[in-house]
Specification:
By secondary structure, the chain is mainly β. It is about 10% helix and about 30% strand. The chain has three domains: about 50 residues, no CATH class; about 120 residues, Trypsin-like serine proteases (Thrombin, subunit H, Beta Barrel); about 120 residues, Trypsin-like serine proteases (Thrombin, subunit H, Beta Barrel), CATH 2.40.10.10. The strands form four sheets. A six-stranded antiparallel β-barrel has the order 4-5-6-11-10-7. A six-stranded antiparallel β-barrel has the order 13-14-15-18-17-16. Strands 1-3-2 form a three-stranded antiparallel β-sheet. The longest helix is centred in the N-terminal third of the chain and has 10 residues. Its EC number is 3.4.21.-.
Length: about 350
């Protein structure tokens, strides 16, 4: 009997004879290679009734040629750990505190002189993968990613959370880039459509308070802001050309309808409403900075038995989210993430990324 089967027996779980089809955010794999469900089974006799039910419900079949090896629908995304709420964040402020946006990542590039320089940003979505803009990975490819950074001028980031009380994070983490995956439709359009890409890190990172993924808007699982909820948030440092900040800032943006966007954009500029999102700074955040490739997030709900409020990745910034009064109300056009979630999940499944 295989180790995985022994775990199920010890846990008192009778596996099903049949199988269920996996959802789009899952992959049918052997229990032995599914970290989250294997940890659940490893609890043995300490596993409660809900845990046993979860293991039974997860079964999708049996490994080929091994009748003792159950296969399970294993999550492709760490939905149980993504975008946990931060009670210390400051609402309606451009100030970002430590642990507030732990999914924001800076991408580093090799300069012509051989030194490293930061350009685009990205969003951590699993322990191995980042989502960014396609124009941030081609023709220039990032060589490393910096996670868990707030202030670029300090070794350790700290924030005041109460009188005479500091909350400090661990030093920023630099991880080499393994490969990049440009969306195949990006090169076909010069108007910014399909401006999305994946960056795979050379090694998996551990989730901590200052390094944690944002939730992807998986259909039926993570419910993103409705059309009526028009406020989104951009995080970033900005660029030197626009007097970027050494400290990450945030700003509230207003999502525009297609009609509103069309009236504010130059006549020659066209927007694909299904794939792109127009935003303008709200009156509260006209000093925000967003980096190309960085996240545009919105308050969302993770459904299911552990339903909770989360932040989901609504958009990927195609250009700076806002300038200090420089754009005179001209919208920023960003890439909607939801239409590309199936493509992202397919790439994760191909590369064996399970949780």
């Amino acid at each position: 009997m295989t180790t995985a089967a022994v775990l199920l027996v010890v846990a008192g779980v009778c596996v099903a004879v049949g199988a269920r089809p996996c959802e789009q955010h899952e992959k049918c794999v052997a229990l032995a290679v599914c970290p989250s469900l294997r940890r659940l089974a490893a609890k043995g006799t300490a596993l409660d009734a809900d845990g046993k039910a979860a293991l039974r419900a997860a079964q999708c079949g049996w490994a080929a040629g091994d009748a003792a090896m159950p296969e399970v629908c294993c999550p492709l995304l760490p939905l149980d750990e993504c975008a946990l709420p931060n009670p210390d964040r400051l609402l309606f402020s451009t100030t970002v505190r430590v642990f507030e946006a732990p999914w924001v990542v800076r991408l580093a590039y090799r300069s012509g002189k051989g030194s490293l320089e930061f350009g685009c940003s990205a969003s951590l979505v699993t322990d191995l993968y980042l989502v960014t803009a396609a124009h941030c990975v081609v023709p220039r490819t990032p060589v490393s990613a910096r996670l868990g950074e707030l202030d670029t001028g300090t070794e350790q980031d700290c924030s005041d959370v109460a009188q005479d009380q500091l909350l400090c994070a661990a030093p920023a983490l630099d991880v080499a880039v393994d490969t990049v995956i440009e969306h195949p439709g990006h090169a076909e359009h010069a108007d910014g459509r399909n401006d999305i890409a994946l960056v795979r890190l050379r090694r998996a990172v551990s989730f901590t308070d200052d390094v944690r993924p944002v939730c992807l808007p998986v259909d039926g699982v993570v419910v993103p802001p409705t059309r009526g909820h028009r406020f989104l948030v951009a995080h970033g440092w900005g660029t030197q050309a626009n007097n970027g900040s050494a400290v990450m800032t945030k700003g509230q943006l207003v999502a525009l309808t297609l009609e509103e966007c069309a009236t504010r954009l130059p006549a020659a500029r066209r927007v694909d409403a299904a794939l792109q999102q127009c935003t303008v700074p709200s009156h509260r955040s006209n000093a925000c900075r967003g980096d190309p490739g960085g996240p545009l997030t919105g308050a969302s709900v993770l459904t299911g038995s552990d339903s909770r409020a989360v932040e989901s990745l609504v958009g990927v910034l195609s250009s700076e989210a806002c300038d200090i009064g420089a754009n005179d109300g001209v919208p920023t056009v960003s890439t909607r993430v939801a239409p590309f979630v199936p493509w992202i999940l397919a790439r994760l499944a191909e590369n064996g990324s399970v949780h």
